[in-house]
Structure to design on (75 residues):
């Protein structure tokens, strides 16, 4: 976390804490820039978002469909 302004870092940490409380599974770095998903998981989702919020939509819908989380979404 070099050269990250304090305000941006604080907002990110707060957002991650809120998401951890809202999601039934433990999620780390939910506001991270890079995330990988299994093709099978993505193909099973009906996605509506097309902006940066798509990451949260993928996570929440995958969890709702019963896919597990461990560094990547797995069935």
């Amino acid at each position: 976390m070099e050269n990250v302004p304090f305000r941006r870092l604080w907002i990110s940490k707060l957002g991650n804490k809120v998401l951890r409380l809202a999601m039934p599974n433990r999620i780390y770095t939910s506001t991270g820039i890079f995330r990988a998903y299994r093709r099978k998981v993505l193909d099973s989702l009906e996605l509506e978002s097309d902006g940066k919020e798509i990451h949260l939509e993928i996570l929440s819908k995958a969890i709702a469909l019963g896919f597990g989380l461990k560094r990547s979404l797995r069935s």
Summary: The first strand starts at residue 68 and ends at 70. The chain is about 45% helix and 10% strand. Helices lie at 6-22, 39-43, 54-64. The CA atoms of residues 46 and 61 lie 8 Å apart.
